[in-house]
Amino acid sequence: MEINKEDSIEVFIRNNRKEFDIQGPSGKHAEKFMERLNRELRHLVSIVPYLARVAVVTFLVFIFSVIVWNNYIRKDRHEITLKEKVILVIHSLSRTIAK
Q1: Is 83 inside any structural domain?
Q2: Which range of residues forms the domain containing residue 83?
Q3: Number of domains in the chain
Q4: d(CA 91, CA 97)
Q5: Which pLDDT value is given to residue 5?
Q6: Alpha helices of the chain — where are they, by DSSP H?
Q7: Which partner for 29 in 25, 80, 83, 84 could form a disulfide, CB atoms 3.0-4.6 Å apart?
Q8: Is 74 a domain residue?
Q9: What pLDDT score does 24 carry?
Q10: Which pLDDT score, from 0 to 100, does residue 67 have?
């Protein structure tokens, strides 16, 4: 099995396919693969607490920004709200019915 300079790896493998198919992966190949997979999964699991912290901080920042916008930045915050209008209508209706 010699590689000529003119041959590419692909051509070399195609021409010598039988010699490559003689031997399969070793018996420990599956064990090594599973160990490596478990290490990768442990790495992924180890970042989950950090992602949870980021989610909590993001949620808190969102809530804080909504509160600040609603109480200080919103232009119509001094006008009557729909809830207050409904209460006034219900109150005035109840007064007219009581008379």
Answers
A1: yes
A2: 47-98
A3: 1
A4: 10
A5: 58
A6: 9-15, 17-20, 29-46, 48-68, 82-98
A7: 25
A8: yes
A9: 73
A10: 92
Say which residues have a Cβ less than 8 Å from residue 15's Cβ, sequence separation at least 6: 7
- pLDDT for 49: 86
Report the amino acid identity of residue 57: V
Alpha-carbon distance 78 to 72, whole Å? 10
Per-residue tokens: 10:
């692909």
Return averaged pLDDT per consecutive 10 residues of the chain, 99 residues in all. 65 82 77 84 77 96 93 80 88 84
Cα 12 to Cα 36: distance, rounded to the nearest angstrom:
31
Q: What is the pLDDT of residue 60?
A: 98
Instruction: Check the CA dihedral 23-28-31-33 and report its sign.
Output: negative
Question: What gap in Å lies between CA 51 and CA 49, rounded to an integer?
Answer: 5
Count of Cβ atoms closer than 10 Å to residue 13 Cβ:
13
Type of residue at 39: R
